[in-house]
Amino acid sequence: MPNKTRPIEKFAKATAQCSAEAAAYGKCVVADYNAVQKDMCAKEFMRLKDCYLAASKKI
């Protein structure tokens, strides 16, 4: 039986490669956390999402 990567392991490995994007998204959300609204940090979120998708394809 081949050694398969569990989905959560794949997610962890991919997100580990996107720490800069995750930090930027987190800073955006925290900057005005009392007034969070939809699409407030859409640009930062899309960068994080794109990084994750690219990283997950490499795993």
**Mean pLDDT score:** 90
Number of helices: 3
Q: What's the order of the H and E elements?
A: HHH
Number of discrete domains: 1
Extract low-pLDDT stretches. Answer: none
Structural class: mainly alpha
What's the N-to-C terminus distance? 19 Å
Biggest beta sheet summary: none
Rg over CA atoms:
14 Å
The geometry reads as elongated
What's the β-strand tally? 0
What fraction of residues sit in β-strands?
under 5%
Estimate percent helicity: 55-70%
Q: How would you describe this structure to a colleague?
A:
The protein has helices at 7-16, 19-31, 42-58. With 59 residues, it is mainly alpha-helical. It has one domain (16-58). Helix 2 packs antiparallel against helix 3 (42-58).
Short synopsis of the structure:
This protein is mainly alpha-helical and 59 residues long. The protein has 3 helices and no strands.
From the structure above, extract its key features.
mainly alpha, elongated, 59 residues, 3 helices
Question: Which secondary structure elements does this structure contain, and how are they paired or packed?
Answer:
Elements: H1 7-16, H2 19-31, H3 42-58
Helix pairs in contact: 1-3, 2-3
